[in-house]
Write a structure and sequence with these properties.
With 107 residues, this protein is mostly helical. It folds into two domains: 41 residues, no CATH class; 51 residues. It contains four helices and no strands. Helix 1 packs across helix 2, helix 2 crosses helix 3 and helix 3 packs antiparallel against helix 4. The two termini are 32 Å apart.
Length: 107
């Protein structure tokens, strides 16, 4: 494939580090890695980017809720509720993974 157009991509430090590490792991340059993502990705590349963005928002939301909870209920109660929520999330994740495996959607 002839690559005769050059573009500039702006990333934050974390995004740049992530792409650099992924390119190194793939044994290629950042430029070639990004070009391959675009060439093969289309919707898949956008979906991966969106998934990462959603995960970052979930983590931020969790931090904010935890901070507010600690301010309202106190640190010990916040810790207890956080541990309870983790256990419930783990239970739900196991159920979802079992369903995906049973349906053949997950290897």
């Amino acid at each position: 494939m002839v690559r005769d157009h050059s573009i500039s991509v702006a990333l934050d430090r974390i995004g740049a580090a992530r792409v650099t590490l992924q390119a190194e792991a793939a044994g290629t340059t950042v430029s070639a890695y990004v070009a391959d993502l675009i060439a093969r990705g289309g919707d898949q590349g956008l979906a991966n980017g969106l998934a990462i963005e959603q995960l970052e928002m979930q983590v931020l939301t969790a931090f904010l809720v935890r901070t507010v909870l600690a301010a309202i209920k106190g640190e010990e109660e916040a810790r207890s509720l956080t541990e309870w929520a983790k256990m419930k999330a783990l239970e739900q994740t196991k159920i979802l993974l079992a369903d995906l495996r049973a349906s053949g959607s997950l290897g």
